[in-house]
């Protein structure tokens, strides 16, 4: 029977205080020194927040109505009050005008927040997500960000785009070369496979023309002719031409990749002098 992904890699029981090892195995905190995989930093491990979240979610039970302590479908959740309500209590308590601004959603669409909801530095609620640092941010974090962050991010994106395009072009050339080498090997094998029959036909023609009697030559010439026709029908394709990208073509590809960042007019001139040799 397959084990659950939420089971400890060592004791095969549900993870308790899960920790993630450098080898990416999730183990209980008490089992963490027992991982059998060798890594350069096997002694270091940290709490596995993802596994912990999944375990808490799997143990979650349906919330009862905060007003009548019953579970009567359909259930709703007031995100403003942070309380669950059954259908009847929702109609009884949230029809008044004072609750008109409250946000009510179907219970299945709500999710209880288990982590921090406020910034630990400014005690402000999280309202943004920083893609560069991959972390939540409050309005104060946004206002206090360094002014050069956006410029640095743009430069980093341009740098990454140029490198990615260069690597793609190199991979395309290497793929073309591999295909050409494969075609050459196949043609060499084809030529080698017919060398024996060709040599036999040449030897037969030489003997029939020099030492064979006229009667034997007439009888065997048709057979020799058939063999020669069979050999010539096994055509060998022309060797494929190896595509070599010229500098202008490479610069054009780089310019197209940078178009979203720098625009068309600038790249028209820049594409004439971009160096991708680094």
Automatic annotation (TrEMBL):
GO CC field: perinuclear region of cytoplasm
Matches recorded under Pfam families: zf-B_box
Gene3D superfamilies: Classic Zinc Finger
Domain RING-type positions: 8-47
Keyword annotations from UniProtKB, A to Z: Metal-binding, Zinc, Zinc-finger
PROSITE patterns according to UniProt: ZF_BBOX, ZF_RING_2
A single MF term (Gene Ontology): Hsp70 protein binding
Location of the B box-type domain: 60-107
Family annotation (CDD domains): Bbox1_RNF207-like
InterPro entries linked: RNF207 (IPR039320), Znf_B-box (IPR000315), Znf_RING (IPR001841)
Name the UniProt record assigns to this protein: B box-type domain-containing protein
